[in-house]
Amino acid sequence: MKDEYRQRRERLMANMAKSTAIFRSASLAVMHRDVEHPFRQDSDFFYLTGFNEPEAVAVLAPHHEEHRFILFVQPKEWEKEVWSGYRVGVEDAKAIYGADEAYPIAELEEKLPQYLSKADRLYYHFGIDELFNQTILKQWQSLLRQYAKKGFGPTALEDPMTLLHPLRLVKSETELELMRKAIAISVEAHHLAWDMAKPGIYEYEIQAEMEYLFRRRGGVGPAYPSIVASGANACVLHYIENSRALEAGDLLLIDAGCSYGYYNGDITRTYPVGGKYGMEQRVIYEIVLEAQRQAIAQIKPGNPFSAVHDTAVQVLVEGMIELGFLVGEPEELIKEEKYKPYYMHRTSHWLGLDVHDVGAYKQNEEESQVLQPGQVLTVEPGMYIAPLVKPAEEQPEVPPQWRGIGVRIEDDVLVTENGYEVLTAGIPKMPEELESK
Ligand code: GLY
Ligand code: MN
Ligand code: MN
After folding, report:
1. Looking at the domain 1-167, which fold is it?
2. Using CA atoms in the order 236, 242, 244, 248, what is the torsion angle rounded to 10 degrees?
3. Ligand 1 atom with minimal separation from the 349 CA
4. Which of 79, 399, 413, 421 has the fewest CB atoms within 10 Å distance of its CB?
5. CA 277 to CA 72: how far, in whole Å?
6. 142-179 pLDDT, tens per residue?
7. How large is the greatest C-alpha to C-alpha distance in the chain, in angstroms?
8. Which one of the listed residues 32, 238, 366, 432 is annotated catalytic?
9. Taking CB atoms and a 6 Å cutoff, what residues make up the pocket around ligand 1?
């Protein structure tokens, strides 16, 4: 792994010219007086260092004569470690994490200028730590005064996402291995949930079993709050109360994934409770499934990212017209977003260190990002007919037998050299298969 992190830094530094980049770790958030939250490293920081402690700063200075990668870390201090856990310390930050130089974090203000003063640009992301933002601004202002007299120094300050996030968008083999592991655990948990989807079970019981499995398999826990939504709860996109008992004839929408080694699974399936979809449920299910099938078929290098969503919307809208939920020409209905009462979210997001991973979805104001091998995206169309849903202007009401039906099908898809690979194929989605229990 040490080499992997080194390669990532090298790739970033290759585009940095005569600049210096400063990355701040996540802070140890404190909740309710003295109780510590579980620590979760900042994803950019982790991507470049693999270093998993708070109160740290990483500096990349490719033009510096001696030190290109510098870590500022919490020193070893047993009185603190006995409360909050062992620290790597200054010496091992070099040995284990490959830093050319390491210092105690307390020396930041004193040691930082030597790595900034000859750069012509600083890369820094203004984060939630206001005090630290002020520290960096102060350093920069002092270097600007220096520039006024000496004619060198960083005159520009830029967010590192312009350079770093395109790199994070394309996953390495090492990253894909971790993603496959996170997904394998997520798939296993969905199998468990599918087995449990019987009348009388509470949504939270299924949630508990899934999250128990996440942890038992070595994951950190859920990648995001697990959604276990039966009946009309499936029409609430972020339903996380998970408090209702399943009833025969319900649909059960489960959107849950495991976080493992900082990577995430993100899977949604909509199961029939008691083993069989009702007639209306099945019709909606088939439309969403077809929307997803055609959307996934758009995934290959060179195709625009937007084609995935556009294709899903096209199929969903045609379905809505057929069912009489919408009246009009598909093109017009799509342009005027008349489908939004029943499909209100986007079809895809990038997936990686963050569940909604970094990386721009557009190249510029007009053009979509182009798909390329190594990207991982979700494909998650749905249709939601909430009990009290209001149709768009000049559109018909939906008849009562369709109300309370919510379906989403979500897979995680890798862009390959020739097309795509559905990483989440281990959990079935064909209705016949899901009815087989
Ligand atoms: N569960 C979060 C998402 O699907 O985007
Ligand atoms: Mn998702
Ligand atoms: Mn999801």
Report:
1. Creatine Amidinohydrolase; Chain A, domain 1 (3.40.350)
2. 80
3. 5
4. 79
5. 57
6. 999 999 999 999 999 999 999 999 999 999 999 999 99
7. 78
8. 238
9. 224, 255, 266, 349, 355, 380, 410
Ligand lying closest to the C-alpha of residue 226: 1
Whether 129 sits among the annotated catalytic residues: the reply is no
Supply the residue whose CA is at minimum distance from atom 3 of ligand 1.
266
Round to whole Å and give the CA distance between 381 and 286: 12
Per 3-state DSSP, what percentage of the chain is helix, strand, and coil (rounded to 5)? 40, 20, 45
Catalytic: which of 203, 410, 411, 412? 410
Q: Whose CA is nearest to atom 5 of ligand 1?
A: 356
Q: State yes or no: is 349 an active-site residue.
A: yes
User: From the candidates 188, 380, 411, 412, which is the catalytic residue?
Assistant: 380
Residue 30's pLDDT is 66
Residue 31: pLDDT band with limits 50, 70, 90: low
For residues 29 and 52, the model is more confident at 52
Ligand 3 centre distance from Cα of residue 254 (Å): 9
pLDDT score recorded for residue 38? 83
Check residues 27 and 14 and name the one with the higher pLDDT. 14
Q: Which residues contact 310 (CB under 8 A, 6 or more apart)?
A: none
Query: Catalytic site residue 6?
Result: no
Q: Could you state, in order of their start, the residue ranges of all structural domains in the chain? A: 1-167, 170-435
Ligand with the closest atom to the CA of 351: 2
Residue 96: C-alpha distances to residues 49, 59, 93, 213, 263 (Å):
10, 16, 6, 31, 22
pLDDT attached to residue 33: 65
């090492």: which residue's tokens? 174
Q: Which residues surround ligand 2, an ion (CB under 5 A)?
A: 266, 378
State which of 254, 255, 259, 264 you would mutate to test the pocket of ligand 1, scoring each by most atoms of that ligand within 8 A of its C-beta.
255
Please confirm, yes or no, whether 280 is among the known catalytic residues: no
Cα–Cα distance list, 4 to 21, 88, 314 (Å): 19, 19, 41
For 31-47, the DSSP string reads: ETTTEEPPP---HHHHH
pLDDT digits (tens, 9 = 90+) for 202-211: 999 999 999 9
Per CATH, domain 170-435 is 3.40.50.10840:
no
pLDDT score at 437: 79
Q: Is 345 marked active-site? A: yes
Structure tokens at 210: 């899934």
How confident is the model over 111-134, as a mean pLDDT? 96
